[in-house]
Amino acid sequence: xxxxxxELRFSTDKMYQLVDxxxxxxxxxxxxxxRNGICLVFAPHATAAIVANEHESGLMQDILEKIREEFxxxxxxxxxxxxxxxxxxxxxxxxxxxRVFPVKDGRLIRGTWQNIFxxxxxxxxxxxxxxxxxxxx
Length: 137
Description:
Blueprint: E1 2-10, E2 17-20, H1 22-32, E3 37-42, E4 48-53, H2 57-70, H3 86-95, E5 98-104, E6 107-108, E7 115-120, E8 128-136
């Protein structure tokens, strides 16, 4: 079994932001040489997440608005007494910091309208890392 590991780096310029990382993940899968297996996409951050959905500006705005609605920054969260970013921690915990995709015939399998996004909830940040690990044959 092959195991391929790649660290991607992105920067964000807004408090809440969706960064389309699809191209970079697909490139990592091609570089891996794995024909059939799985691809893990993981954000090693407690205030960011990974999602798969359509890259359409209205929907992207809707996703960010729903995150703000579900996890308001002024929500009276206990963690805000320390860092004032509890909403971002909660968003990451409930949305999830990873997604797994199948790899078949050397290609990442995703739906027609599924792009892969890094969800920034505590920006702006000069560096956000995303780990791509591809395993298979």
